Amino acid sequence: MKAIKSCLTISAAVFCLTVASPAAFSAAKDKVPGDAKGVENPVEADDDVLKTAKKIYKKKCKKCHGSKGDGKGPGAKDMDPLPPDWTAGIDATDGELYWITMNGSADTEMKGWQAGMAKEGKEVSEEEAWGLVHYIRSLGN
Ligand code: HEC
Predict the structure, then answer these.
(1) How many whole angstroms from 28 Cα to the centroid of ligand 1?
(2) pTM (global) more than 0.90
(3) What separation in Å is there between the alpha carbon of 66 and the centre of ligand 1?
(4) Atom number, ligand 1, closest to the C-alpha of residue 98
(5) Which of 44, 46, 26 is nearest to 96 (CA)?
(6) b vs e for 71-109, b when ≥16 Cβ sit within 10 Å of the residue's Cβ?
(7) What is the CATH number of the domain that holds 60?
């Protein structure tokens, strides 16, 4: 009996770990309209763009996505779904990452950052969002 009980405890722990760790891939990209998926990044990834994006990321994204982009930001602890772990690889096109940044992922804590969706003064411009896409990719390396 004792063996069965500890086994149950162990499987409960494994189950909890599975539930609590960020998925490598989010389902968010399934919500992106077809014509937005293939849009290419019009912004070049130079040092200035990455530096600006890093600043914006720290201010607006890090609390959930984590400083490394692993989805373990302190603000994301109890979220369901959790933000994805970009450090495990990014399975999304630039167009998808951009669209989700601007429009969010419906019914999750990922809110859209475009004007009219984000709180006043917190919006992300189109150019900044494309820069963020480059920055997110750099976290995936
Ligand atoms: C309040 C928490 C929170 C903040 C702040 C936040 N996100 Fe998210 N984000 C999430 C969650 C949760 C998901 C997963 C959504 C899903 O699975 O549908 C997500 C998903 C995403 C995705 C889709 C990722 C993929 O690989 O499919 C992108 C892109 C994204 N966020 C960009 C950003 C950017 C850029 C910022 C900052 C401007 C930001 N997020 C701020 C919680 C947050």
Answers:
(1) 9
(2) no
(3) 10
(4) 29
(5) 26
(6) bbbeebeeeebbbbbbbeebebbbbbbbbbbbbbbeebe
(7) 1.10.760.10
Q: Angle CA(10)–CA(13)–CA(109) in degrees, nearest 5?
A: 165
User: What span, in angstroms and rounded, lies between the C-alpha atoms of 99 and 33?
Assistant: 9
Helices in 1-45 by DSSP H: which ranges? Answer: 2-20, 34-37
Q: Please answer whether residues 112 and 103 qualify as being in contact, where contact means their C-beta atoms are separated by less than 8 angstroms.
A: yes
Structural domain count, the chain = 1
Q: What is the rounded CA–CA span in Å between residue 54 and residue 67?
A: 10
Instruction: Give distance in angstroms: CA of 45 to centre of ligand 1.
Output: 21
* Residue 4 belongs to a domain: no
Q: What is the pLDDT along the chain (141 residues), one digit of tens a residue?
A: 555 554 445 555 554 444 555 666 778 999 999 999 999 999 999 999 999 999 999 999 999 999 999 999 999 999 999 999 999 999 999 999 999 999 999 999 999 999 999 999 999 999 999 999 999 999 996
